[in-house]
Amino acid sequence: MSAPLNAPRPSSLACWVAALRPKTLPLGAVPVLVGSAIAGHEGRFEPRLAGAALGVSLGLQVASNLVNDVADHARGADTDARLGPPRAVAQGWLAPGQVWTAAALSLALAAGCGVFLSYHAGWELLAVGLAAILSAVAYTAGPVPLAYHGLGEAFVFVFFGLVATAGTTYSQLGRLTPGALLAGVALGALASAVLVVNNLRDLEEDAATGKRTLAVRFGPRAARLEYLLLLGAPFAALALAVGGGWLPPRALTACGALPLVLLSARAFLRARGAALNPLLARTAQLNVAFGGLLALGVCL
After folding, report:
1. How do the domains of the chain map onto residue ranges?
2. pTM for the whole structure
3. Cα–Cα distances in Å, from 59 out to 28, 32, 88, 93?
4. What are the C-alpha distances in Å from 44 to residues 10, 18, 49?
5. Are the beta carbons of 284 and 247 closer than 8 angstroms?
6. pLDDT class for 270, splitting at 50, 70, 90?
């Protein structure tokens, strides 16, 4: 269980680590890695543009985490019943104004990298970038927060799957490719699976505080089915990409993550409550394993 509210304040560094959630950063980095690998396979890897895409993705990831911390507290969604890691604002470790300022700086980083990317790769990317920035804030803030209306998985799938992966490839090649889109489907599904674990763990607290996630709306059985489908989707997308000739056969190296998938699926069907916390980390690791092996296979 999380630390009770008003627990003793840790060091300033630990407070900011709690707010920034650095363990989530690979979810933003892996799609850029895969998208860049696909661009390289197609004959044009641009390190500067890959770096800018990484800045956009990580800036959005951090901003989303920070806004989530402060906005959930404002809505009363973080309570003593929380089973996950402690939240910095809810604990009183950081003031809301501090966290909003840090979120604004993260969004500024993402916007700056996005402008650089658009200048070199096409101004049409600005519209995509603006939508991503607005969605990162609207995930838990604003009049219609996405996470509170069962749209959290859709946000993650689109922006940390399709957009991050295919957008990275597009910025370097100047065109979309079916292989990049299908890779985006795969990584978006795995990133969404992380959120499903989180939402199932927090189901009772979310229901009590009015956070209508898909797990709250449809119950734990549907959440478990959703998780299994999301774990299977990457391999279906990979098979389609290779079978269609849009990714090289070496991309099947990503199937090396299958044992971790099976272990995660088995654990998810059995775990309850706080016991889901280790599975949350394992599912994030699965995203890294699948994406890393996919990038390696494409580059070989």
Report:
1. 12-299
2. 0.93
3. 9, 13, 19, 22
4. 47, 38, 11
5. no
6. confident
Q: Position 295: which residue type?
A: A
- CA–CA separation, 8 and 288 (whole Å): 34
Distance CA 226, CA 240 (A): 21
CB 258 within 8 A of CB 186: no
- Name the DSSP class of 273: G
Q: 211-260: per-residue pLDDT in tens?
A: 999 999 999 999 999 999 999 999 999 999 999 999 999 999 999 999 99
Secondary structure letter of residue 6 according to DSSP: T
DSSP E strands in 57-204: the ranges are none
Distance CA 159, CA 184 (A): 9
Q: Which string of DSSP letters, residue by residue, matches 67-92?
A: HHHHHHHHTT---TT--SSPPTTTTT
End-to-end CA distance of the chain: 44
Chain position carrying tokens 């402008």: 115
Return the SS3 of 272.
Answer: coil
φ/ψ bin of 44: left (φ > 0), alpha (ψ from -120 to 50), beta (otherwise): beta
Is residue 9 helix, strand or coil?
A: coil
- Residue 56: phi and psi, rounded to 5, are -60, -50
- Among 99, 111, 80, 77, smallest CA distance to 7 is for 80
The token duo for 193 is 């699976």
Smallest Cα–Cα separation from 141: which of 89, 66, 67, 79?
67
